[in-house]
Write a structure and sequence with these properties.
2 domains, 170 residues
Length: 170
Amino acid sequence: MLPCKFCEREAVVLIRTARRVWLGCPHCYQTWEIDAAQAEMTSDVGMVSDTDTIAGRSLRRGYLIAILGVALALSLRLVLRPALGNASPFLLFTPAVAIAAIYGGLGPGALATFLSTLLGSHFFLISPGEPIIEKWDRVILFLIVGGVITMSTGREPLARTKGACHGRGR
């Protein structure tokens, strides 16, 4: 691999297009770009697999945050069940969706919304005397709120990544 321009450690390929190659250092978190022709001349610069890139690690981290966030929300909600009863079944799942979308993007945000909907419905929407429409109303409302949170905050990591690639090293 090509050494980092800033700390001289090993750099990785972040993005490759027909004309440009964006490189990044996982140690000092700096990014820069070079011409694709220059990258081809340097035999050390090759496209690494998705599992080895910073983006691949960030995506896995986002999904892990989504799963752990929903698990934490479920645990807290179960602890608070004696105080809250079946009221506000998705109250603590909403921050889990927001955190997953902020740190992971659209995929982890959608996963957190889906898992929260399943778990919240299963554990906290089981009132025997409550009309069925009341249950579906809450589920649909949470899906809408989770979708809006995911769509509005899930684009931010992509914007930060593009800004980091284009803003440094020029």
